[in-house]
């Protein structure tokens, strides 16, 4: 006896089979430090404006979600460059960056998920070569290294920002010159430092000598003023004033008028 299969069971089985096939394509989990953008194949195409935040999301199986890491990332590069005079040198650079969260749709449309190889690294290399080509090896290696690094950072940061990438930092880890050139620069810097130290000692000694000269001149001028003010009349008047004060003392004494030197009163104790 043939048994009829319940149509409900058939439908339920078909739905279950369908879910098993497409189930992995209708949901997606975006982790912390990530953002997603959607490509709607049959309707509006790539949504460049809206992004998917971290969490669980349901997506139609015919649409595609592209997930980008938006945490700070690092790339290290080594390259050979030429200075202003055509001298070859090697440089090691570290770049820290992340894509602009709300602009990853535009970044994806322009460069795709390989934006580091298509955008970041080429622009860093280009900026480094252009900037260092304006300076001589000695300036890059020592005297203007901070200026060179600041200029590279400014130019690289600007071009990456225009393409929806935020540059957090750019560091020049090392600069390697041909050994003879490096030694010549080091010797020159050492001589300049020694000359600067010698000039400093001379300046210090000259300043100390000038200080002593000014002090001596001031002391001599003060003595001259004092001596010029001590006239015989002034000394005689001061002597009389002192004599009067002494005469007021309770101690017994004899005052002889006009018996002192220059006619000054002479005071004798009993």
What is the ordering of alpha helices and beta strands? HEEEEEEEHHHHEHHEE
User: Regarding quaternary structure, how should these chains be classified?
Assistant: single chain
Which term fits the overall shape? elongated
> Any low-confidence stretches, pLDDT <50, length ≥5?
none
Q: What class would the helix/strand composition place it in?
A: alpha+beta
Question: Main beta sheet, described?
Answer: 3 strands, antiparallel
Q: Tell me the number of strands.
A: 10
State mean pLDDT (0 to 100 scale): 79
CATH uppermost class of the largest domain: Alpha Beta
Whole-angstrom Rg: 46 Å
Determine the CATH topology of the largest domain. Answer: Tetrahydropterin Synthase, Chain A
Strand content: 15-25%
Number of helices: 7
Tally of structural domains: 3
Query: How does CATH name the architecture of the largest domain?
Result: 2-Layer Sandwich
Cα-to-Cα separation, first versus last residue: 167 Å
**Arrangement of strands in the largest sheet:** 3-2-5
CATH superfamily of the largest domain: Band 7 domain
Walk me through this protein's architecture.
The protein is α+β, with helices and mostly antiparallel strands. Helix 3 runs antiparallel to helix 5 (145-162). 50% of the residues lie in helices and 24% in strands. It folds into three domains: 7-69, no CATH class; 73-177, Band 7 domain (Tetrahydropterin Synthase, Chain A, 2-Layer Sandwich); 233-269, no CATH class. The chain is elongated and about 150 Å long. The model has no long low-confidence stretch (mean pLDDT 79). The longest helix is centred in the last third of the chain and has 51 residues, at 179-229.
